[in-house]
Design goal:
It is a single chain. By secondary structure, the chain is α/β, with parallel strands linked by helices. The chain has one domain (about 5-260): Purple Acid Phosphatase, chain A, domain 2 (4-Layer Sandwich). It contains six helices and 17 strands. Strands 4-5-7-9-11-10 form a six-stranded mixed sheet. A five-stranded mixed sheet has the order 3-2-1-14-15, covered by helices on one side. Strands 6-8 form a two-stranded parallel sheet. Helix 1 (about 25-40) runs parallel beside helix 2 and helix 2 packs across helix 3 (about 85-95). The longest helix has 13 residues, at about 25-40. The protein is globular.
């Protein structure tokens, strides 16, 4: 039985070599460690998608550094913009990624093994919050109508749900979430809505399926559910997502920690539980 594996990275926030994000964290070694962890997986992913905030300021040197860090990945990599990115510079820095298009929103639909990956652009230029306008939503509706017989994963940067982390919800998807949920509910082939932006693993029921975020390979947003919680990040364990679709089955999503750890060790020795 063939299983399709879609790797998800998000919120890499790469700066120019030697520069630190927020003046405190060099995100590049964390991404390099995540890439090494991905390449050590027992089963190689069919493709990877990065759900936004690829860089910190959308500068040419940042995207050049990102390209170098991603080069060891042994699979196709698909890029989405986040609120820290520049659509124009993404296209200029990754000209071989023709799915990015030449102008306007970065939205695309590609086959990855047995599933269809559909990417939505939630970015509002110059703003931290996200929006889905009627034009973007109509494109999604049309694309879903073209793929009724294939399992679909929708990828986007801003999650279309409240996370209860107040300062992040203030810059979440402020327009189009209800309309998106209505579209998803009409299309049962949508197996998952995968998002970034939150630097945490969060899941919620959405439109008859599951919408979820994944950790950053570097820093995480602090888990504080107070409505007036301060905007803050933590050096909690970094990670990434792995979405597995067995032939004829349902999508199973895993969250993995990046890094090197002891093991694996057997639970049994010669069929006997080790004492």
């Amino acid at each position: 039985m063939t299983t399709t594996l879609l790797l998800q990275l998000s919120d890499t926030h790469i700066r120019e070599p030697g520069r630190q994000a927020y003046g405190r964290i060099n995100t590049a070694p964390y991404l390099a460690e995540a890439v090494a962890s991905i390449n050590r997986l027992p089963q190689a992913p069919d493709a990877a998608v990065i759900t936004g905030d690829l860089t910190d300021f959308g500068r040419p040197a940042e995207y050049e550094h990102l390209r170098e860090l991603l080069a060891p990945l042994r699979m196709p990599v698909y890029l989405l913009p986040g609120n820290h990115d520049s659509r124009e510079q993404m296209r200029a820095s990754f000209p071989q990624h023709t799915y990015l298009g030449t102008e306007g929103f970065i939205q695309f639909s590609v086959a990855v093994g047995g599933l269809q990956l559909i990417a939505l652009d939630t970015v509002v230029s110059g703003a931290s919050e996200g929006r889905l306008c009627p034009q973007r939503l109509q494109w999604l509706e049309t694309e879903l109508a073209r793929h009724t017989a294939r399992p679909v994963v929708i990828a986007m940067h801003h999650p279309p749900f409240r996370t209860l982390i107040g300062h992040m919800d203030d810059i979440g998807l402020l327009e189009g979430a209800d309309e998106l949920e209505a579209i998803v509910s009409r299309h049962p082939q949508v197996e998952r809505v995968i998002c970034g932006h939150l630097h945490r693993s969060i899941q919620v029921r959405f439109g008859g399926t599951i919408a979820a975020t994944v950790p950053s390979p570097a820093h995480q947003v602090r888990l504080d559910l107070a409505p007036d919680a301060a905007s803050a990040w933590m050096l909690e364990p970094p990670g990434f997502g792995l979405h597995a679709l067995p032939a004829g089955g349902r999508l199973v999503s895993h969250t993995a920690a990046s890094g090197s750890y002891a093991g694996p060790f057997p639970f049994h020795d010669g069929g006997q539980l080790i004492d």
